[in-house]
């Protein structure tokens, strides 16, 4: 099984561009400064070691979980086991994607999807695992068949999507009955000064800030159950299981 086998018919039966080492279905329109930076040649080089861990620490606070702990949280929320098919949405340089590949084993498959050519180029260079594939495409309109994956992860990306609720619809569609989702995204502060500061930063960067109940409610509306949430600073971890 490969990512090609899981593509929707309109992609799977056509000629695919795989020259860069991943299936290239095209990128997505920019939503602001943050997403533009992900397309640069600089950020992919420093992303895993400095950029992403530093941003996480600022947003989650000193006592929030670190970057390595995030991967463990994602794996546990999704309940990944050997043989599973996992989709890593907005996979960036593939750090989480490669981590999940160990949990699913050689009989499983992990697919990372991202809109950035530079991020995926770094992911390809850093990935030696045979059970990992990458796709360049739109996370808001996932190019995969219905019920293709046992678990979907979307960490540190939902808040920069142009239409995050459409992205949730798409994640729901590609999950198998009983499939699990793990999300790490923004969470609005409770106090007025924090809410004001976050709102100003979001407007300038193109990032959205979700109310603390917004993602939980959205998942419940889409047929998810066993929803869990953990607030850390101005961020939240949310896990859920799609009804069987």
Walk me through the topology.
Layout: H1 3-6, H2 9-12, E1 23-24, H3 33-38, H4 43-60, H5 67-78, E2 85-89, H6 95-104, E3 109-114, H7 117-126, E4 132-136, E5 149-155, H8 164-174, E6 175-186, H9 192-205, H10 214-221, E7 224-232, E8 235-242
Parallel strand pairs: 1-4, 2-3, 2-5, 3-4, 5-6
Antiparallel strand pairs: 6-8, 7-8
Briefly, what is this?
This protein is an alpha/beta fold and 244 residues long. It has helices at 3-6, 9-12, 33-38, 43-60, 67-78, 95-104, 117-126, 164-174, 192-205, 214-221, and strands spanning 23-24, 85-89, 109-114, 132-136, 149-155, 175-186, 224-232, 235-242.
General description of the model:
The chain has 244 residues and is of the alpha/beta class. It has a single domain (3-242), classed as Rossmann fold (3-Layer(aba) Sandwich), CATH 3.40.50. It has ten helices and eight strands. It has an eight-stranded mixed beta sheet, sandwiched between helices. Strand 2, helix 6 and strand 3 form a beta-alpha-beta unit. It starts with a helix and ends with a strand. 43% of the residues are buried. Mean pLDDT is 84; it is low at 192-205.
């Amino acid at each position: 099984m490969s990512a090609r086998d899981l593509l929707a018919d309109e992609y799977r039966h056509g000629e695919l561009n795989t020259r860069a080492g991943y299936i290239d279905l095209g990128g997505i329109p920019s939503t602001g400064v943050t997403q533009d930076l992900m397309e640069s040649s600089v950020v992919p080089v420093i992303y895993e070691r400095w950029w992403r861990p530093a941003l996480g620490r600022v947003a989650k606070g000193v006592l929030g979980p670190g970057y390595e702990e995030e991967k463990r949280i994602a794996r546990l929320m999704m309940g990944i086991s050997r043989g599973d098919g996992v989709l890593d949405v907005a996979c960036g340089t593939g750090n989480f994607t490669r981590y999940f590949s160990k949990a699913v084993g050689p009989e499983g498959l992990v697919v990372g999807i991202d809109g950035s050519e530079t991020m995926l180029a770094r992911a390809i260079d850093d990935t030696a695992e045979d059970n990992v594939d990458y796709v360049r495409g739109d996370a808001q309109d996932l190019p995969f068949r219905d019920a293709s994956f046992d678990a979907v992860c979307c960490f540190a990306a939902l808040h920069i999507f142009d239409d995050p609720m459409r992205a949730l619809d798409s994640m729901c569609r590609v999950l198998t009955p009983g499939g699990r989702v793990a999300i790490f995204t923004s969470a609005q502060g409770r106090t007025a000064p924090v809410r004001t500061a976050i709102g100003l930063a979001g407007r300038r960067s193109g990032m959205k800030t979700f109310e603390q109940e917004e993602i939980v409610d959205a998942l419940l509306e889409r047929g998810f159950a066993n929803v869990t949430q953990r607030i850390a600073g101005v961020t939240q971890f949310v896990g859920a299981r799609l009804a069987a």
